[in-house]
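Now for my pick.
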Amino acid sequence: MRLTRPTATAFALQLVDDVVAERQSGKNAAYFAGIAGEWRDRVNAYIDAGGSPAILPTWPVANARTKSFLNLYLAPKKGAAQQAVLDALRDHNLTACPACGEAGRPNTLDHYLPKGEYPHFCITPHNLFPMCDACQKEKGIKTGDHIDPRFFLHPYFDVFIEKQVLQLIIQAPFTAPSFDLRPAPGLTSAQERLVARHLRELAIVPRYSRFFREQFRRLLRLVSKMRTSGQDVRNSLELFKVHAETPTFNSWEHVFYDAVLSNAPFLKFLENDELPDLL
């Protein structure tokens, strides 16, 4: 799901200045004062690079004092400059995970570049976004490898995910169908590869499997009632699809109904054939 960037670049840089200023009466005053300029430069570079680990190096100076940075995120003092930013990111109205599209309020914040390896980005607003527990467990501290330096879509910078980037193919026999979840047509080759890596590394396909089975059973119940009451099956399912567009075209339900309606043989099966009793 594409998310609106949390702050302007100038605000993210000002946050660095404010955090450094707040440290000037403590034991880490000299350290933070000494790195302030480069810290700002690295935050600015993060925004320019869209958070890509392929471009952004780690920072040994920060890694040598990881705990000093992590405390800014894990134990901010009341009224600290970063506290308002963190509170705002947690106070969201999302009804689906931006990383996978599964319905439900994501309960945690994820660091796109992991805070252990990139501690200087642990409170950078552009590096933080809500994520469901299942995605965070699968993502862990991964970023990429020597073959694919970037595994994951970035909800603030990968603007192409405003459109549907997942395609579901429902395969016969339709009485007990299987499915294939893949990058949608129309993407560039680079976008397609990135979406495929994102699906793989977050284990979205096996997680979607249970949803698909339950959604198929629900679909049969709905279609059975539609046919009994004389409703037009295609038009009714179109309404379900439109409803599922919010909050994202990549919600699991929207991807499912898009697959149903774009599969002429399956739709014909739903409209005319005897439905299996899976109730």
